[in-house]
Design a protein that fits this description.
Number of helices: 23
Number of strands: 27
Structural class: alpha/beta
Strand order of the largest sheet: 14-18-19-17-16-15
Number of domains: 5
Radius of gyration: 33 Å
CATH topology of the largest domain: Heat Shock Protein 90
Strand content: 15-25%
Largest sheet: 6 strands, mixed
CATH class of the largest domain: Alpha Beta
């Protein structure tokens, strides 16, 4: 089987090599250390990922053999088999066969591997009679053997890293890698050469694979270089000031010379001689100083210009290295759409546009989950069933458009469907049922405001938890993810015609353009993507509307607020524009986040700069109204404001911002997370905390039950199944034995995906069972919100 798509072929080439190399090294290690269960679990994850990659790209023979390797490793983990030398020989031979099949998939060269006989030998591992590496003619009975057919996307959970060719023209390719722990050198070695000398001659390094975090760190340093460049530019201003001072000094010296000349005519000869000598010496030294300053300015300008060129080239080069085509992410969705549509008995066509647009790799990482969620929503209950569409005079096949386009330094990504659209009646009913708003408030809202209620945390028109999704379920998580990228999301819907979600994001996240303003003698930065306009407002133009200060903007009322009030800064009331009649006008920045606008008064508009945003220290999880900090060209530390938080703070002060996202104040739910894997435990904890949960972690079931009894105030338990001391099923059973915990939601998250496994979870008393193969954060969070 040959992978036709060039990009996918390159992805599979590198990903499969990584997994196969890891498995080979792991087998060698386990042969010497068979008791290392941790290493065994790592290899199980590697086989699982390789199987998923092979299935996704249609390399069925590799998928089949990898699945059998996974079964063999599972049997070792369960104690059914032992890692004998003969057993390991069989594993190696099976691995060699998979490597040949993968080579065929990326080169088209025949592998000459009989999957049936290799599979048969793997099933009888330990009793090897015929070397698997020999070419054996395929047998028709091979067709009887099939691997499991899970959804392709359940196994492909590795993140892209960057592959940098070691040539002068560096190109970038996204590669799925499960263990990006070090820089890896990709190499090609001829498999037909036997001597060491020949192998050495054939060895050639054509690309260098770099861990993404290292490239991120390099980008930060390039950003710091930009700051240094601006500081050097300011030193140029200092040199110009020194030249102005020198010119003033020269003028004064010339006046002194004229004075001495006039006095010389009136006094005896020789009286002014000493002073004239000093004057002449001063003039000579001034001439020397002037020459040095002019030379310094010339050289400094040349160096500054050279530094600016190099800095810009370096920064833009690193930015290009960080950027990937959106197709790297978009190509994951066609198969997903096909499988989900088939599962829902619908006919859906996915149209992708703009896949060649480049974006920062972090955008691809962070946007995969939101786009997946929206596409699942559209298929689940945005697109109607064929019979329903025909009855509505629509074509039987629904269409989902995934579009991207470049808009200056931003990109827009649209998810559009031609389904039934949002139901405003359902949204109103849900808002009333959940107590978010009363009927009078809802009646006063515009269509746009009602549609944006779906982004409120906990808002859902669904009454049941499904495996796929529900429109409105978890969309607050989508919004949070987008805001984390300093972007915004908009929604438009026409009943019976469809729905559109639009994401507006920066193409680069390493640096950002910011408006520098001044308040109370302190500088602050506001991201320009949230600044709609800057203007000056006269005091007489401010009026009160429903108790809130308001101005007229583009023919409509716009609420205004003073930044000093939002930031709780000490500033006298006399400086406010409606009271300070001595000022003709005051600077006002109109912020726009989504469909919300707010006018913010500041003391001064200083500058617009490209900044490197430095996030909060890990010690500071959240600082209201502040997104981070940066260093200005003056060396001054400047706080970067969060426009989203500023608008929320304004609402908290009773300022009406025409909010489409007014959120009720709720107590953070508490979740007990029980997981023995440190990486998984850390990742899930971050996901839960990012969604607003207070998380307590436990290292195994026994530890989890102990903490549950000690604190006794948890709103839910999220637990792995396979753990030491007390596994997840035993933990669930023990919790359900306590009467006070009979209604405590329990969610099991595990790799065990068989129906029998899920039934055991249900029998133990679990409310939900999520397989790690199917896992994405939105599914977990949606399930949690539905159960708490």
């Amino acid at each position: 089987m040959y992978i036709e798509d060039e990009e996918l072929r390159a992805l599979y080439r590198d990903a499969s090599k990584d997994h196969l190399d890891k498995l080979e090294a792991g087998f060698l290690y386990l042969e010497k250390h068979p008791e290392d269960s941790t290493k065994l679990k790592e290899l199980l994850r590697a086989t699982h990922s390789l199987k998923g990659d092979s299935r996704m790209l249609g390399v069925e023979d590799a998928e089949t053999l990898t699945h059998q390797l996974e079964e063999l490793l599972s049997s070792v983990e369960q104690g059914e088999r032992h890692l004998t030398s003969a057993f390991c020989d069989c594993l190696y031979q099976g691995l060699d066969s998979i490597r040949k099949i993968a080579h065929e998939a990326v080169t088209g060269e025949p592998a000459n591997v009989s999957v049936f006989h290799v599979l048969a030998q793997l099933m009888n591992a330990g009793d090897v009679s015929t070397p698997v590496s020999e070419a054996i003619e395929p047998d028709e009975s091979q067709d009887l053997l099939e691997a499991d057919k899970d959804d392709f996307y359940t196994d492909n959970k590795t993140d892209p890293i960057l592959t940098l060719p070691a040539s002068e023209e560096l190109e970038l390719e996204a590669i799925n890698q499960s263990t990006p722990d070090a820089v890896t050198l990709k190499s090609t070695v001829s498999e037909t050469v036997a001597t060491d000398d020949s192998v050495s001659e054939a060895y050639h390094i054509d690309t260098v694979r770099v861990e993404s975090l290292k490239l991120d760190a390099l980008m930060i340093q390039a950003g710091e270089l930009s700051v240094t460049k601006r500081r050097i530019t300011r030193r140029m201003d200092d040199i110009d000031k020194a030249l102005l001072f020198w010119e003033s000094w020269v003028r004064d010296s010339f006046i002194n010379r004229l004075t001495f000349d006039n006095q010389d005519l009136q006094l005896e000869a020789g009286v002014l001689a000493p002073l004239q000598t000093v004057q002449q010496l001063t003039e000579d030294r001034l001439d020397q100083l002037g020459g040095l300053l002019k030379q310094l300015r010339t050289k400094a300008y040349e160096d500054s210009a050279r530094l600016e060129t190099l800095s810009n080239n370096l920064e833009s080069g690193i930015l290009r290295l960080r950027q990937l085509p959106l197709s790297s992410m978009f190509n994951l969705f066609p198969r997903m759409v096909r499988d989900l549509a088939k599962d829902r008995r619908k006919s859906v066509n996915l149209v992708i546009e703009g896949g060649d647009i480049q974006a920062d790799k972090r955008i691809l990482e962070e946007m995969k989950a939101p786009l997946t969620h929206l596409i699942r929503n559209a298929i689940d209950h945005g697109i109607e069933a064929p019979s329903e569409r025909i009855a509505m005079d629509k074509v039987s096949m629904g269409t989902i458009w995934l579009k991207a386009r470049q808009q200056g330094s931003h990109i827009e990504i649209d998810v559009v469907d031609d389904g039934r659209g949002l139901s405003l009646a359902s949204i109103k009913q849900t808002a009333l049922r959940r107590g978010l708003y009363n009927k009078a408030e809802l009646d006063q809202m515009s269509t746009e405001q009602l549609q944006n209620l779906i982004f409120v945390p906990g808002f859902s028109t669904r009454t049941t938890v499904t495996e796929i999704s529900g429109r409105g379920v978890g969309l607050d998580v989508v919004r949070v993810n987008v805001e984390r990228l300093k972007g915004s999301i908009q929604v438009q819907s026409n009943p019976g015609q469809g729905c559109m979600f639009r994401f507006i994001l920066n193409t680069s996240l390493a640096t950002a353009s910011a408006l520098i303003i001044e308040v109370n003698h302190t500088s602050y930065a506001i991201p320009v993507e949230c600044v709609e306009v800057m203007m000056r407002v006269a005091p007489q133009d401010i009026f009160a509307l429903e108790g809130s200060p308001t101005i007229t903007f583009q023919g409509n009322p716009l609420s205004v607020v003073w930044l000093t009030d939002l930031l709780d800064l000490p500033l006298s009331v006399a400086t406010r524009p409606q009271i300070n009649a001595t000022k003709q006008s005051n600077p006002c920045v109109v912020l726009k986040v989504g469909s919300e606008r707010l006018g913010v008064f500041v003391d001064a508009l200083v500058d617009q700069q490209d900044i490197v945003l430095k996030p909060h220290s890990k010690i500071l999880k959240r600082v209201r109204n502040i997104a981070g900090a940066t260093i200005l060209g003056t060396g001054e530390i400047c706080m970067v404001l969060s426009p989203q938080d500023l608008i929320k703070s304004a609402r908290g002060q009773g300022i009406d911002t025409l909010s489409t996202d007014r959120e009720p104040t709720v107590t953070q739910p508490r979740v007990l997370l029980v997981e023995d894997s440190i990486p998984i435990r850390t990742q899930v904890r971050r996901i839960l905390e990012g969604a607003g949960y207070q998380v307590t972690t436990a290292v195994d079931g026994l530890d989890g039950f102990s903490k549950l009894q000690q604190e006794d105030s948890f709103d839910a338990v999220v637990s792995d199944v396979e753990m030491p001391n007390l596994n997840g099923l035993e933990l669930t059973t023990r919790i359900r034995q306590e009467t006070k915990y009979e209604n405590l939601p329990i969610i099991l998250v595990t790799t065990l995906a068989q129906d029998a496994d899920k039934q055991r979870g249900a029998d133990a008393g679990a409310n939900a069972y999520i397989t790690k193969g199917d896992f994405d954060q939105s599914l977990l969070l949606n399930t949690l919100r539905s159960l708490i």
